[in-house]
Amino acid sequence: MSDQSSFTVLVVGSGGREHTLVNACVNSPLVQRTLAAPGNPGMAAICECEPVAADNIDGLVKLAESESVDFVIVGPEVPLCLGLVDRLNDMGILAYGPKADGARFEGSKTYTKKLLLKYQIPTANAANFTESEAAIQYLYTASFPIVVKADGLAAGKGVVIAEDFETAKKAVVDMIDGGAFGESGKSVLIEECLTGEETSIHAIVSGKDYVILPTSQDHKQVYEGDVGPNTGGMGAYSPADLIDDAMMQRIETEIVKPSVDGIAAEGIDFRGTLFIGLMMTPNGPKVLEYNTRFGDPETQVLITRLETDPVKIMLAAAKGKLGEINVKVKDEYAMVVVLASEGYPNSYRRGNPISFPDSVGDNQFIFHAGTKADEAGNIVTNGGRVLGVTALGTNLSEARDKAYELSDRVDYKSKYLRRDIGAKELARTE
Hints:
The protein is of the alpha+beta class and 430 residues long. The chain is 31% helix and 27% strand. The chain has four domains: 4-100, 3-Layer(aba) Sandwich (Rossmann fold); 131-186, Dna Ligase, domain 1 (2-Layer Sandwich), CATH 3.30.1490.20; 197-324, ATP-grasp fold, B domain (D-amino Acid Aminotransferase, Chain A, domain 1), CATH 3.30.470; 333-429, Glycinamide Ribonucleotide Synthetase, Chain A, domain 4.
């Protein structure tokens, strides 16, 4: 790595998570130059964007080499699963994110389930199938509701909670025979339906060292009241007081440490984010899944709450020196409200011009997710999740008010948002 005075970082990705990470890099005293590939208009306003797709591994490697990049932060799961970090490390370029063997825990839910069961980490009972007929036969013996999951990557959408046999059968047939999620759904995991409240834990991992980031809670379903189909996430807040200090200790003892130790015991040198989806069941926390990158929109609230420079933390993890870092968190609450396109997660229109407010208050942020610049240079909608409007406050109520106030000052045709982000939490604490 070159001298810190010429420290160059490349952030891979184009969503709200990556915009948040770019913002952290731009504000880091360690970083002189920030690149993003492919980036988005929000990132282009503060850093250099290069038109290299996140799944173009050869192109990203060439870009890192030609621009003398010192450190690469990989945002999305796809380039991780395709071995981008392996390729970069082979060239002597440091990168934050697991190699392909570690990313496989997100790339295959069955692979994760085997690890969880092997190391006796609390999780739902499950069975894996690659043929619809065998899966349907299994359903005849199952208790409902039951969960049908596409084994591979499905952008957070490959999960069906089936209340009855016919719904489960349809999900199986759609995935295995109908190609609903392409190759990702050719293998399915059918598992017991855990009840309780869903939350997530993010840990930055470097071998056997780890740092647990603040708690957060995402709102996955598209409609208020947590109904409707799953999405990539409609909003999040941090901290999630659902998890108190005693419960966090239990989660660390029963889930985080055994997970980190189990991955290491499998011979995997994991250096990146282990994002553990949990269900807080009446019998305690159980693992729903592993992801091997920061969540989106959780990143928007977690990174903005860090007092310690996020780049410093990720760099230490990539170097295997995470144990030397004392991570400090701001004594503030954060909330992100996702502004989506009406119709998401199904069909929706693109290309609607976005009107942004003239000014943004202190501790308020607009992170771009699904946007692009049209031929005239206007910023328009270009995805289901368009923007992540984020705010910090001294308490959750203040963070919520600031996030919604700013959300209401952003306008575009077909804007849709949930108005109840954090409502359960506020009801618990009021």
